[in-house]
Amino acid sequence: MAPYTSPTKSIQDLIIDNISTAVLMVDKDLNICHLNAAGELMLDISYKRALGQSLRHILNVEDNFFNRLEDSFHTNHPYSEHELSICLFSKKELTIDYSVTPIMQPGLNNQLLIEITSIDRHLRITHGENLLSQHQATRSLIRGLAHEIKNPLGGLRGAAQLLENELPDLSLKEYTDIIIGEADRLRNLVDRMLGPNNLPRPREINIHEVIERVRQLAIVEAGSQINFKRDYDPSLPLIIADPDQLIQAILNITRNAILELKDKGNITFRTRPQRHYTIGSHVHKLVLQIQIIDDGSGIPPDLIENIFYPMISGRAEGSGIGLSISQGLVNQHGGLIECQSEPGHTVFTILLPLENMFKDITGDLQ
Q1: Which residue, 177, 208, 340, 348, is most buried by CB atoms nearer than 10 A?
Q2: Contact, 220 vs 306, CB < 8 A?
Q3: What is the DSSP letter of 314?
Q4: 58 pLDDT more than 90
């Protein structure tokens, strides 16, 4: 078979090359006839390498995707699809919106024009905004519940103490002790759900010293069966933060990973900078990314969206409070915790902006 040669680019091709959206054109056999610069960047392949290759060799995606392209050729009908998950052969995964337009010109080979937009960043920003809103709503709800629960508990405990002093038979004291003990347990539970109520005491710190402190504590708790790995970026600048609060936030996540591994596996601490990164609705010039990665069995899909709610736990013995507290501590620093999980690979990502970190946080603690 003769090698595929590229014809001289037409004015249409030159226009497509300068469009910021990924655009490619395929023939009836789904071989790539043209790919613009944005498409090269998105699909991790050069124009020269892609030209003449079947789209099936570029994208790892369900067969229905290719069947619909072939149907569009036969019917001459354009169509669009939203939130399609694709995997490149470089193993990079993308979520895309795309539209297909048949190009039918007399005397020329028919082609399909495919416009692709990656929506991963949009989905991530939306998810981050939802996590922040979720945490604020949960915190407001818990504050209200704490007020409504702790006042009656105080009265209940006081009445039990008075009753204990009036009991004619000391053997009945066993029952008042139960009332007082359960009232104290419920009060402590509510206090734990509220999380730390102290203002951060920020100072200049090295984030790797914080993580090393967590790693040392985790080694003592986990024993020798779990391997703790480091993947640090030494170029990261010092940050202004409360080291005790960050230690608590990272330690809560690490303890969850240790329990998930059941005394055998790997936990990796990774740090990276992220530039022009969006947390919630705010774009930050520089963001510190801390990842705690384990190779355990993963978080069940029905729990993954709710794990930062208090009292949500995948283990019967778990309280479901640690991750909620961690989210609150990181939120106080203007940051966010995200989670992705599949069997054998769970990643908790802590995102901390490196500027204006403590703006308006005092109002959240009132």
Answers
A1: 348
A2: no
A3: S
A4: no
Residues 6+ apart with CB under 8 A from 317: none
Strand partners, 117: 97
Does the pLDDT at position 278 exceed 90?
A: no
Whether residue 353 contacts residue 280, with contact meaning beta carbons closer than 8 Å, is answered with no
Over the stretch 292-327, which tens digit does the pLDDT of each residue have? 999 988 888 888 877 887 666 655 455 567 888 888
Which position has the token pair 């003769």? 2
Q: What is the DSSP string of 264-291?
A: -EEEEEEEEEEEEEEETTEEEEEEEEEE
Short-list 17, 33, 18, 3, CA closest to 108: 33
| Contact in structure between 303 and 311 (CB atoms under 8 Å) | no
Helices 173-194 and 120-166, axial angle in degrees (round to 10): 160
- pLDDT at 311 (0 to 100): 62
CA dist., res. 180 & res. 362, Å (int): 34
